[in-house]
Amino acid sequence: QVQLVESGGGTVQTGGSLRLSCAASRSIFSIDTMAWYRQAPGKQRELVATITSTSTTNYADSVKGRFTISRDNAKNTVSLQMNSLKPEDTAVYYCKAFYFERASPHSDWGQGTQVTVSS
Fold first, then answer.
1. Alpha-carbon distance 43 to 25, whole Å?
2. How far apart are the first and last CA of the chain?
3. Which is it for strands 10-13 and 104-109: parallel, antiparallel or unpaired?
């Protein structure tokens, strides 16, 4: 199991920036994919961005060009740089790790961090 702790959430005005961090309890070097999800009130949780062990990234269309996901294997952290924030980015943001143990797939979630973008 991997414990994940998100930080960096807060309240920002439209057009502002925030940087979220996800700290893992163990080395992420062997973790296949790290991802950020978000869940707005009354909506389903949605995928925001992913980064593989080879640093290949993928983004939801709604955040392309504004958000950047990165990983620092030495610090066991994954970050999400969010620029040009919009009110519709308001949500709880969750970190998730996908990995294999004993040839079986596993995934773990963090507890989430609130991001609020005011208009």
1. 29
2. 39
3. unpaired
Residue 44 burial (CB count, 10 A): 7
The reported pLDDT for the residue numbered 34 is 96
Given a contact cutoff of 8 angstroms between Cβ atoms, the answer to whether 67 and 17 are in contact is no
Q: Is the four-CA dihedral 107, 46, 76, 72 of positive or negative sign?
A: positive
Instruction: Go through the chain and tell me how many residues it has.
Output: 119
DSSP string, 61-83: TTTTTTEEEEEETTTTEEEEEE-
Note the pLDDT of residue 29: 81
Q: Does residue 23 surpass a pLDDT of 90?
A: yes
Spatial contact of 48 and 57, defined as CB atoms under 8 Å apart: no
Predicted local distance difference test score (pLDDT) of residue 31: 87
Question: Under a CB-based contact definition with an 8 Å cutoff, are residues 86 and 14 in contact?
Answer: yes
Q: What is the dihedral of CA 28, 31, 32, 34, to 10 degrees?
A: -60
pLDDT exceeds 90 at position 8: yes
pLDDT score for 45: 98
